[in-house]
Amino acid sequence: MKKILLLITLIFITTVSHSQSGAKMELKTDTVDYGTTNKNDDSGKRSFEFKNTGDAPLIIKNVKSTCGCTVPSWPKEPIAPGKTGVIEVKYNMSPGPIRKTITVQSNAVNYPDGVVALKLKGEVVKTEEVNILEKKKSLPNQ
User: Fold this and answer.
1) Are 59 and 92 in contact (CB under 8 A)?
2) DSSP-derived secondary structure for the chain
3) 55 — pLDDT class (breaks 50, 70, 90)
4) Whole-model pTM?
5) Residues 6+ apart with CB under 8 A from 72
6) Residue 14: which region, alpha, beta or left (left: phi > 0; alpha: psi -120 to 50)?
């Protein structure tokens, strides 16, 4: 009988601990893929949309990038339960691969310590510059 009572108590405690109350951040996606692009055709601006699915206001305390080539901006006011918000990022579009992480610090109870990692990926290629004064190369055998 004691074992059954202990088992029921453990199940109850586990259920209660999983139904955390507080702010919860639900992201549409945690990765933005720039694909293959170039600086002339792309501003480098992207956004991460999220919703507070919890029962308390969501507060984004800070958003950090891994380098100065990516500049994040985020809502400074609390996001009410059921409302949405946007974290915007601007990448400087330097030629080469894009592999960046944006770290979001918040009071979201559904992430360890309220920390969420957002990722940027893709590749920026150089635009081929055409010099109209340069003579075109002829094809061999012509």
Assistant:
1) no
2) -HHHHHHHHHHHHHHHHHS--S--EEES-SEEEEEEEETTT---EEEEEEEE-SSS-B-EEEEEESSTTEEEE---SPBPTT-EEEEEEEE---SEEEEEEEEEEE--TTSGGGEEEEEEEEEEEPPPP--TTSPPPPPTT-
3) very high
4) 0.74
5) 63, 64, 65, 87, 88, 89, 102
6) alpha
